[in-house]
């Protein structure tokens, strides 16, 4: 069981690294008027999204494995687990929405300002600051 948890945490850290950095690229991309710089951002965004997606999948695989093996039986009736699963669902939607934004930027169809992306950038951090205490404290 501890190996499952370790793998889950390693993949989660890698996934979150992408969730933190990709929206920062969007902020900078939305601020540039230079075509050459914009093309460079498009390349970075596409590569980072493709690199990050397998980490999301592996995080979900190992998390689901732990959930099926023991977590649901042990904690399934506790509210913290339900909230955590809901927040993970929101993160998955966030991840795929980032993929849509990568495509929008690639096609020069971005309609949002760098200020909007600055707020958007904070979503995974806020969710992380809720999920980690839920998972560690298991308080309710």
Salient structural properties:
140 residues, mainly alpha
What features would you describe in this structure?
With 140 residues, this protein is mainly alpha-helical. It has one domain. The chain is 86% helix and 0% strand. It has 5 helices and no strands. It has helices at residues 2-31, 35-75, 79-106, 114-120, 123-137. Helix 1 runs parallel beside helix 3 (79-106). The longest helix is centred in the middle third of the chain and has 41 residues, at 35-75. It is elongated. The chain starts with a helix and ends with a helix. The mean pLDDT is 97.
Give a short overview.
This protein is mostly helical and 140 residues long. The chain is built from five helices and no strands.
Taking pLDDT < 50 over at least 5 consecutive residues as the criterion, the unreliable ranges are none
Number of helix segments? 5
* Approximate strand percentage: under 5%
Helix content: over 70%
* Number of E-state strands: 0
Number of domains: 1
Taking all residues together, what is the mean pLDDT? Answer: 97
Give the SSE string: HHHHH
> What's the end-to-end separation, in Å?
23 Å
Classify the secondary structure makeup into a structural class.
mainly alpha
Shape: elongated
Q: What about the largest sheet?
A: none
| CA radius of gyration | 17 Å
Structural topology:
Blueprint: H1 2-31, H2 35-75, H3 79-106, H4 114-120, H5 123-137
Helix pairs in contact: 1-2, 1-3, 1-4, 2-3, 3-5
